[in-house]
Design a protein that fits this description.
Layout: H1 2-7, H2 15-28, H3 35-48, H4 51-60, H5 62-78, H6 88-96
Amino acid sequence: MIYHHILGVEKTAGDREVRERYLALVREFPPDRHPEAFQRITRAYEALKDRRSRVKARLTGVNDFTFWIDALDALVDSIPTAPQAPGLDRIIEADNK
């Protein structure tokens, strides 16, 4: 599961280890200086913070899916867009001038 990698803990990590690692990462990546990293770290913590959350994340996979959607959105946003060709309305408008 990707959340273990984000927090840097083993899949067998317990509540206490997950919380300690989360707090260490929050100190390293505070929300005012690293908002995106903080958001990923917090999402990972919410999925792993207790046994119930870990089981839910494992069974539903919803959280992993959300992570990948966010990762793909970030990738798409990083690609520069090409200039757009003029639309038909703009061509007709130019032709009428």
